[in-house]
Amino acid sequence: MSVNFPKEEERILEHWKEINAFLRQVELSKGKKPYTFYDGPPFATGLPHYGHLLASTIKDIIPRYWSMKGRYVERRFGWDTHGVPIEHEIDKKLGISGRDAVLQMGIEKYNAECKAIVMRYASEWRQTIDRLGRWIDFDNDYKVGDSFAGSSRVTVDNYYRPWTPHTWNQSGGCSSSCGKKTQSTGDSKSCPFLLP
């Protein structure tokens, strides 16, 4: 008897969807002692690759272990949606470079361009993660930076005291977090640096 592994994979994934296995498992553990696992989300600007596959397997094993030990583990997929990788993509797309070009375009328009590409590979990520057999909630995902928006703005001082090193965006002339901190607090104690 030979086994067709790709067909078997599809059959198992379909069965899990039919019985809603992941959500049922989470539902059954509600009210139990919680176990919190911070995923360390990937940047949303690129497609998944081998490194993501390996890390994602580990990110599935740990929450599954604690679920099997009887703990409640909320597993939400996360996206790193801020910073230099997205700015780099927009700079390439628009053919601009540097702080002055961004200011000439307008910060709001530049930010709108960045937000427009943030989730462009979401369906590819979902398909890949599902094919890995990883149980995680894509429909209730989170995005790094969401808690910094609007009236719920949190200052960087709450997280990094008193000095915070940041990567330096050479074409922009500032660190990605420096501008945010100055904008929210009026005072910047960050310590930007250049890497060779």
Would you write up a description of this structure?
The protein is mainly alpha-helical and 196 residues long. It is 47% helix and 11% strand. The protein is built from eight helices and six strands. The protein has helices at 5-19, 21-29, 50-68, 84-94, 99-105, 107-117, 122-131, 176-185, and strands spanning 76-80, 137-144, 165-166, 168-169, 174-175, 191-192. A two-stranded parallel sheet has the order 1-2. α4 packs across α6. The radius of gyration is 21 Å and the shape is elongated. The termini are far apart.
Describe, in short, the structure shown.
With 196 residues, the protein is mainly alpha-helical. Helices cover 47% and strands 11% of the residues.
Spatial ordering of strands, largest sheet: 1-2
**Helical element count?**
8
Low-confidence runs: 147-165, 178-196
Termini distance? 58 Å
| Cα-based radius of gyration, to the nearest Å | 21 Å
What does the largest sheet look like? 2 strands, parallel
Structural class comes to mainly alpha
Order of helical and strand elements? HHHEHHHHEEEEHE
| Share in β-strands | 5-15%
How confident is the prediction overall: mean pLDDT? 77
Shape: elongated
Number of strands: 6
Helix content: 40-55%
